[in-house]
Design goal:
314 residues; 10 helices; 0% strand
């Protein structure tokens, strides 16, 4: 009996060591995948604050909370199972689906840019400040749609890094990455949009240095929010265009990925120590321009169709 108990304890210890090793492997894989997805996370954090710009301050955090919940649903209930099924049965479909999402981001970014220059927007009537519930609903819906594409890109990057792992490991890594990235992005977004309130609180403190910092935050945050709105639009074009560039290359088309890569490499070589940064900037700018062209064409087509539908019948 004692020997049997010792054998059982040895088995339990072995299972515990195996479980610990598996947890370590999942943690390492999730950390590596998260690091590779960091670029898209930055874009996501830049895009989201513009959805609460101009809304009631009391509704900023609740709206961000709703978007965060929608983002988790996107990642865990939609993207994760679809990604695992496609990886197992139709891996060839992942790139075209991502490219469809990238095209939508290009469309959104180009439309926002045209609106900024006073060239109109969606043909349908948008909800106004006199109807705050409709405005909030439309804001959350639009943000979750955009988040779906960005989240799909994050999860695809994470999945590519663990594609050779067992399906259970893939699922756990995607789960960890999805939750961690959502908390990180929307935590930062919440902090950004409430920074002016933090500044107002600091401006009322007795210490003069703290008051100065608080007043600086209050005065500076409108500029920061406007800048983030512009960065968010640029990020849509950059990420959307980048998805299209990488997608066409994965599908075997040399253009535009190879010319853009050669241009970035050539410019980077000329710039010496800053070559890596300059090459990255050239690639990002090229992707954004491609995104703008593709998105602009789709916007013009969509607006033309809208005008034709609104034209009186003869």
């Amino acid at each position: 009996m004692p020997s049997g108990l010792i054998a059982l304890l040895d088995d339990v210890a072995g299972i515990a060591r195996l479980a610990a090793a598996s947890i370590d492997d999942v943690g390492a894989a999730a950390g590596k995948a998260s690091a590779k997805a960091a670029g898209v996370v930055v874009d996501d954090a830049a895009v989201t604050p513009r959805y609460v710009t101009g809304l009631s301050p009391s509704r900023e955090l609740p709206i961000i909370g709703k978007i965060a919940v929608g983002s988790l649903r996107n990642k865990l209930l939609l993207i994760l199972p679809v990604a695992l099924v496609l990886t197992a049965f139709a891996p060839w479909a992942i790139t075209p689906l991502l490219m469809c999402g990238g095209t939508y981001l290009c469309f959104e970014g180009a439309e926002k840019l045209l609106e900024a220059f006073g060239h109109g927007g969606h043909e349908e009537a948008a909800p106004t400040e006199t109807d705050p519930k409709l405005l909030e609903k439309a804001t959350v819906s639009g943000a979750i749609r955009t988040d779906l594409i960005l989240s799909a890109e994050i999860m695809a990057i994470a999945l590519a890094d663990v594609a050779a792992q067992p399906v259970l490991t893939q699922a756990v890594v995607l789960l960890v990455v999805g939750v961690a990235m959502t908390v990180a992005v929307y935590g930062v977004v919440g902090l950004i949009v409430k920074m002016d309130d933090i500044g107002l609180h600091l401006a009322q403190r007795p210490n003069s240095g703290v008051r100065t910092v608080g007043r600086g935050l209050v005065k500076g945050m409108p500029v920061v929010m406007n800048a983030l709105g512009a960065i968010g639009t640029a990020a849509m074009l950059w990420v959307g265009g980048g998805i299209l560039v990488h997608g066409t290359h994965r599908l075997g088309l040399p253009w535009p990925a190879e010319p853009l890569e050669h241009l970035a490499h050539g410019v980077g070589q000329v710039c010496g120590p800053l070559g890596g940064l300059v090459a990255w900037l050239v690639t990002a700018l090229g992707s954004a321009l491609i995104g703008l062209v593709v998105g602009g064409i789709i916007v013009l087509i969509a607006h033309q169709i809208g005008r034709m539908r609104g034209a009186p019948a003869h």
